[in-house]
């Protein structure tokens, strides 16, 4: 049951907005004891567990029941809204994702190199979460030049696979609690800017609700009118991604400096899109929210083809050669593979004389 009771206790406590210290005081325990329970380094007696369950208004069975394997849930399609479940193409992609996760963790064990988890944030707005995480990482308000590497080095491993256009998923997130390992799947058939936004979206699931179960992203989760149909955490993650990748302070500073703080034309939005390394649609939504384009401008710009104008104006679409349509393994995964091969060469074959 390692990793199950502790994570359930932590979630139940944070859902009530209680710090470990406040929770411990209410129950008459020490903060250290609660910390050990949540880290699964101490097993509570049945009497203690009953006391905790009663305070949290939870059935004792809630803490004792083993969690179903996260990949079983993911592959069954429970995380997908709607009765149809997963199509064959999506199943094949997720099976490949699972093999990658298993292989990645095997390489980590062999190299004795594990990624520590980032903090888990609770009771916070998406904008504040983006601000706090940027502060924690020392990013200021500058653009994130490689969201994939940043996510990975902070504990959320990423695989980018080309997902068939007819599939019912565009990405996924999973947290393996027993191994304290997080993974995100990104569709490499998307434009580089959209891949970056999806990565930030999944990073939010990792920071905010990794204990809430796996997530499958539908291809239409980027469409505004559909966001309300999904779990509230999807809207939260969308808002976080925009704030994390395009900090309002930096967007406003550039507009003031370069364009005199006035309304933006189509080319201005393209310029900003390239600067922040996001998709045109994401940048357009951001400046619309901030009041730098009107509703009429938004409706006009969103219908245009930004790619042809970008090539005409700037010569090439920003990052277009980065990953489109290819499987992209992370740099850290490649290093672990290399280290594994080196270890094999160093180990003599004792079976031969």
H/E topology pattern: HHHHHHHHHEEEHEHHHHHHHH
Strand order of the largest sheet: 1-3-2-4
- Radius of gyration over C-alpha positions, nearest whole angstrom: 23 Å
Average residue-wise pLDDT: 85
Number of strands: 4
Taking pLDDT < 50 over at least 5 consecutive residues as the criterion, the unreliable ranges are 79-83
Structural class: alpha+beta
Please explain how this structure is put together.
- The protein is α+β, with helices and mostly antiparallel strands.
- It folds into 3 domains: 5-64, lambda repressor-like DNA-binding domains (434 Repressor (Amino-terminal Domain)); 70-241 and 323-334, no CATH class; 248-314, no CATH class.
- It is 55% helix and 6% strand.
- It is built from 18 helices and 4 strands.
- The protein has a 4-stranded mixed β-sheet with strand order 1-3-2-4, sandwiched between helices.
- A hairpin with a 4-residue loop joins strand 2 and strand 3.
- The longest helix has 24 residues, at 88-111.
- The protein is globular, with a radius of gyration of 23 Å.
């Amino acid at each position: 049951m390692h990793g199950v009771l502790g994570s359930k206790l932590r979630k139940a406590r944070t859902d009530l907005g209680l710090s470990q210290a406040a929770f411990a005081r209410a129950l008459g325990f020490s903060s250290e004891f609660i910390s050990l329970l949540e880290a699964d380094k101490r097993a509570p007696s049945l009497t203690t567990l009953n006391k905790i369950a009663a305070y949290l208004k939870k059935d004792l069975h809630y803490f004792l029941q083993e969690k179903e394997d996260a990949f079983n849930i993911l592959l069954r399609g429970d995380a997908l809204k709607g009765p149809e479940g997963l199509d064959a193409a999506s199943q094949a992609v997720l099976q490949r994702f699972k093999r990658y996760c298993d292989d990645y963790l095997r390489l980590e064990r062999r190299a004795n190199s594990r990624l520590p988890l980032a903090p888990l944030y609770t009771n916070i707005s998406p904008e504040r979460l983006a601000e706090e995480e940027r502060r924690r990482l020392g990013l200021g308000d500058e653009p994130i030049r490689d969201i994939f590497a940043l996510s990975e080095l902070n504990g959320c491993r990423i695989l980018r696979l080309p997902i068939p256009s007819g599939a019912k998923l565009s990405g996924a997130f999973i947290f393996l609690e027993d191994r304290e390992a997080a993974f995100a799947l990104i569709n490499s058939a998307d434009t580089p800017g959209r891949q970056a936004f999806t990565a930030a979206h999944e990073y939010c699931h990792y920071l905010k609700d990794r204990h809430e179960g796996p997530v499958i992203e539908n291809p239409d989760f980027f469409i505004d009118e559909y966001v309300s149909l999904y779990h509230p955490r999807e809207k939260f993650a969308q808002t976080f991604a925009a704030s994390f990748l395009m900090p309002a302070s930096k967007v406003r500073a550039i507009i003031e400096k370069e364009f005199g703080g006035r309304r933006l034309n189509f080319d201005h939005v393209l310029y900003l899109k390239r600067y922040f390394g996001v998709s045109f649609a994401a940048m357009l939504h951001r400046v619309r929210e901030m009041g730098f384009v009107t509703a009429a401008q938004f409706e006009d710009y969103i219908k245009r083809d930004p790619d042809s104008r970008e090539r005409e104006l700037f010569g090439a679409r920003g990052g277009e050669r980065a990953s489109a349509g290819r499987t992209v393994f992370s740099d850290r995964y490649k290093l672990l593979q290399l280290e594994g091969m080196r270890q094999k060469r160093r180990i003599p074959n004792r079976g031969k004389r």
